[in-house]
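Lab channel / #folding
Pinned by the channel admin:
"Please post every new chain as: sequence first, then the C-alpha cells as a reply. Keep commentary short and put observations after the output so the thread stays searchable."

First post following the new format, from NK:
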Amino acid sequence: ERRDFFGKINFAGLGTFDVTGSVRAVAAAGGRATGTLYLSDGKGTITLNLRGPVQAANGAMPSEFVYTVTKATGAYGHLRGGYGLVHVTFAPPVQQPAGAVVGGYTMRVS
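Reply from TO:
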C-alpha cells in the first residue's frame, strides 16, 4: 500500500508549508513503513525521511513516523540532521468512478 501526500502541513515552531511526498506500508516480509516528505515555503525547503515502527507482514499503515531532516535549504539550512515525529490521521479511502482510490489525511510535525 502506498499513500501520496500533497497539500499543506504545519511544522511546529516553523509555520505552514506546501507538502508533497509518499509513504509505503510494509509488505509480505514485514519491516517498517518508509517514505519521504518535501516541504517548501517562500523561505526554503525541508526534506524529511520517514520511518514507521517495526511491523509484522502486511501491517496497516502506521499513524506515526519518526523523521530525519535529510536536506534543508534557505532559512532552514540549520535543521539538517534534526529529527522528530510526523503524526498522520488517514481518512478511509474512497473508490472513484475512473478506478482511482482517493483518501484524505491530516498531518502535523512535532
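NK: Residues 4 and 22 are 4 Å apart (CA to CA).
TO: also worth noting, The chain is about 0% helix and 65% strand.
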